[in-house]
Design goal:
Layout: E1 2-4, E2 11-15, E3 21-26, H1 27-32, H2 35-50, H3 53-80, H4 89-129, H5 132-145, H6 169-173, H7 180-189
Parallel strand pairs: 1-3
Antiparallel strand pairs: 2-3
Helix pairs in contact: 2-4, 2-5, 3-4, 4-5, 5-7
Length: 194
């Protein structure tokens, strides 16, 4: 367990498996959460470890990288091939559009997987503590007191408890986290199941 010196309330988990994992919380999180909320947040992060979410994220990232690399190779082959006179212009246009859109769609799918893993970690944390209201309360505090972290890194944003990036249209579309309102609603709707 690690503590990060940052006033932005947040936490994260990382590691390839439960034996090689760490969880961390920021000083900002420690300042605003009571004991049951902090326990719920740490149970959420341990849920990521228990569910092998970091491994799933790495596999998704690898697939997105492979798609981007293949798209780049195909695009270069299309532009630098010597047989342009045999190419149908319609096929060329469709190919260029597919090559450009494939990596974007792959990233959107990767972020959708990450958002679903957040819901799963919320459920795992609620099952672990048997107190889903504490996690919902912690998420509400983040909703009101949350702010972007000082040192932002888009590559590591999916690891955090709450999206550490500044909000915006594209950050929502490519967000690795579902909206806090949705997470709170799911926890409260399913409270009797935990």
């Amino acid at each position: 367990v690690y503590i990060i010196e940052d006033p932005a309330p947040n936490a994260f988990a990382t590691g390839r498996d439960p034996k090689h994992a760490i969880v961390a919380a920021t000083t900002g999180l420690l300042d605003i959460m009571d004991d049951s909320e902090l326990e719920a947040v740490m149970a959420h992060e341990m849920g990521h470890v228990q569910n092998y979410d970091i491994r799933v994220s790495m596999i998704a990232f690898g697939l997105v990288s492979a798609i981007a690399l293949l798209s780049d190779v195909v695009l270069r082959m299309m532009f630098f091939s010597n047989s342009r006179e045999n190419n149908n212009p319609l096929i060329l246009v469709v190919g260029i559009i597919a090559v450009i859109l494939a990596p974007i769609i792959a990233v959107i799918v990767q972020m959708a997987v990450s958002r679903q893993r957040e819901y799963l970690a919320d459920a795992t944390g609620a099952l672990t503590t048997r107190h889903p209201e504490a996690l919902a309360s912690a998420l509400e505090k983040l909703q009101h007191a949350g702010r972007p972290m000082k040192k932002q890194n888009t590559a590591a944003a999916h690891l955090f408890f709450s999206n550490p990036l500044k909000p915006g249209f594209f950050s929502r579309l490519f967000s690795s986290h579902p909206p806090l309102e949705d997470r709170i609603a799911r926890l409260r709707e399913n409270a009797h199941k935990f």
